[in-house]
Amino acid sequence: MGNPVARAFAVTGDAWTQLILREAFYGARRFSQWRDRLGMPRSVLTDRLNRLVAAGLFEQRPAKESPTRLEYRLTEMGLDMFGTAVMQGQWERKWARSPLQERYALAFYDRHTGEPVTPAIFNHEGGQPVDPHFVRGEVGEGLVPIAPPTSRRRRTQPMETDRAIIDRSTDIMGDYWSWAVLAAAFFRMRRFDEIHEALGVATNILADRLNRMVLHGVLEKKLYQKAPPRFEYRLTQAGLDLFPMIMAMHGWSERWLCPDGPPLKLVDTRTGEAIHPVVCDLATGRLLDPRNIRWEVEAAPGTPDAAQPLP
After folding, report:
1. Cβ atoms within 10 Å, residue 307
2. Helix or strand or coil: residue 257?
């Protein structure tokens, strides 16, 4: 699958990479900060940071207080991934809450006006919200296969942290093939054989990822033939609610990984106009730029400490 979403998954789809980006949005810049917050093995952290630098999401700079020490800074490309992380967090808040998210919610505000910000997928900055019922994909030029990365599923759980933006969803969608299976489901591929043919994934890996998606309630398994028994896999409501995150990832990939134009284009079926997904504020249509957004962890309504600050 050489579409923009698959390209993005190959760069950012594994669990450790998602968590490293999460901490970068919270201000992490040094190797020791990621190591202490996530409990990652040193070799794994080194590998992921090197990959992110090579992909263009991070750059290394001398630290201001110690020029001999290097730190990692998000580039424009990396900062633009913020919208995808936010949409992932929105989904997780609804469908895969961590214990922390049961007590606290992440609220966003415009840094300059103080007004609350509601993230939403728009067809372009300043445009209109995207309705998933009116989106069609069209194959463009240069549809080429993307070589999947080597297996990078997280082997051990990270340390507990106080980060509410994303956490548990990385257990569900924490590697390239999980994302690829999910993307296939959004392209209405439902049967094992057709997913296998489209992705070129080993059958044991595909079976594992499908079972994982069913276990976590993203897909449901339905019998469509009794003799011999054959099943198809359909998106549940939790799966369908991943649409904004998939769109955010598509838009990011269009902007950064498809210099010759996206091999899979999105079109509004009502107007015929191209959709270039971007995460914006629902009220203003302004781009969600982390440099212009202030976020606060607030106690969830109804919790005992709803009126108390986060410790």
Report:
1. 7
2. helix
Q: What's the burial of 181, exposed, middle or buried (CB within 10 Å: 0-12/13-18/19+)?
A: buried
Which residues fall within 8 angstroms of residue 141, CB to CB, at 6 or more apart? Answer: 260, 261, 263
Residue 39, helix vs strand vs coil:
coil
Distance, CA of 250 to CA of 140 (rounded, Å): 14
Question: What pTM value is reported for the model?
Answer: 0.82
Q: Are strands 58-62 and 70-74 parallel, antiparallel or unpaired?
A: antiparallel
Q: What is the pLDDT of residues 240-295, one digit of tens each?
A: 999 999 899 999 999 999 888 877 889 999 999 999 999 999 999 999 999 999 98
Q: Where are the alpha helices (DSSP H) in 151-191?
A: 169-172, 176-186
Torsion angle in degrees (nearest 10) through CA of 285, 287, 292, 295: 80
Query: How many C-alpha atoms does 12 have within 13 Å on its Cβ side?
Result: 30
- Beta-strand relationship, 230-235 and 116-117: unpaired
Is-contact 294 301, C-beta < 8 A? no
How many whole angstroms separate alpha carbon 104 and alpha carbon 61? 34
Residues 6+ apart with CB under 8 A from 310: 104, 162, 297, 298, 299
